[in-house]
Amino acid sequence: MAPSSPALTPRFQRSHWDETRAQACIDFLKRLVQTPSLSGQESAVARMVAAEMRDLGYPGVRVDRIGNVIGRCGRPGGPILLFNAHMDTVDIGDPGAWTHDPYGAEIEQGRLYGRGAADMKGALAAMVHGIGLLARHQIDLPGEVIVAAVVQEEPTEGMAMRVLVEEEGIRPHWVILGEPTNLQIARGHRGRMEIRLSTFGRSCHASAPQQGENALYSAARVIFGIELLNSNLMTDAVLGQGTIAVTHLSSVAGGRNVIPDRCDLIIDRRLTLGETASRALAEIEALLRRENIRGEVQTGYYRTTSYTGYSTEGPEVYPAWLMPEDHPLLTHTINSLEQTLGRRPTVGVWAFSTDGTYTMGTAGIPTIGFGPGDDRLAHTADESIRLEDIHTAAVAYANLAVDLLHHLPHP
Ligand SMILES: [Zn+2]
Question: Is 184 helix (H, G, I), strand (E, B) or coil?
């Protein structure tokens, strides 16, 4: 059994989170859920987040070029701890599958229902109000706490954080992601990339197919090869095996009685630790050579414009990442959470990808995940979150800020 940790510096208790604080936080969450914020359309929620931060007394609040809302408190010039929550959500899907209004934020038996409740407006509300405690009590911190409410995480995770770090010049020393962990800790996840593959043939009249070359038949052989490839991909002891799946197929022909000369496939590739984009492409190129197929394979590429009108583009590659078990950020977070939660949190990994793909996967900024909500409810109909977990997370975030800034060694 692990020895319990020594008591840490001044801490917030649930008693600091009185009825008024708790109610204000849940009211804020309700308004967030009632305001749709599909990726690229976060402007109303962003205004709401900035106004809430100002009301709570954050000394610095601004919106950056891509539309991230950045709230700061503490002492500038020291180490920076950044709390990350994305403002966007996926669409509601089939409205008929919901038994609650997806934008109603209805509360029933201690749970709030609606799109984004678990992924991740619950964490956003808990962060904004939890760190608001530091501003309210004017806690003197040996560094700075930033709450970054970011855009467009769902389609292009990490992109908004790249802009924040590389273009806005905010360089956090540590990052806490609030994506749902059920109040446990996540220390990494597999990465992903999108691969575009085309097979080429030669058109002719479908009444004499032997005179042409059917690009669909080539694609069929590639698809079969890709299915077989799955079992041979690399495995990491913690993150598991990489995977590959064809998710889309289209072919272009002059008509329904014409042999198609081109077929396009989209491939979803999940990358485990050690797998790179070039390795993943090379595997498919080898398959094309082996099967003697005329084709072309390349990395997918995104081009997108934020609600502020800021355009970004880049390859659809999102690296895997995993924090070492003995990293001080991880051990200090476990200790801090143990004090707040009254139990030792478990440490696992996420099944999905997050902004950590940039912060840790690309930029190497130590990153871990801690959030309210059940990740199995993310993107589902009747998505919901337990209100009690929001309150717990809010107090835990405030204590994490105090404990980590006081105790973490920083470069
Ligand atoms: Zn999310």
Answer: coil
Ligand 1 center from residue 72 Cα (angstroms): 22
Q: Cα(120)–Cα(25) distance, rounded to whole angstroms?
A: 14
Give residue 9's pLDDT: 57
Q: Is 338 a catalytic residue?
A: no
Domains of the chain: 14-189+320-407 (3.40.630.10), 191-305 (3.30.70.360)
Q: Which residue has the tokens 């029933």?
A: 108
Rounded CA gap, 74 and 79, in Å? 10
CB 255, CB 264: distance < 8 Å:
no
Q: What is the distance in A from the centroid of ligand 1 to the CA of 176?
A: 13
- Burial letters 265-292, b for 16+ CB under 10 A, else e: bebbbbbbbebebeebbebbeebbeeee
In the predicted model, is pLDDT for residue 325 greater than 70?
A: yes
Strands annotated E in 1-56: none
Q: The pTM is what?
A: 0.93
Kind and range of the H or E run holding 406: helix 387-407
Catalytic residue among 42, 119, 153, 355: 153
pLDDT digits (tens, 9 = 90+) for 184-215: 999 999 999 999 999 999 999 999 999 999 99
DSSP readout, 81-140?
Answer: EEEEEE--B-----GGG-SS-TTT--EETTEEESTTIIIIIHHHHHHHHHHHHHHHTT--
Residue 10 pLDDT class (50, 70, 90 cuts): low
Task: Give residue 104's Cα distance to chain centre.
Answer: 24
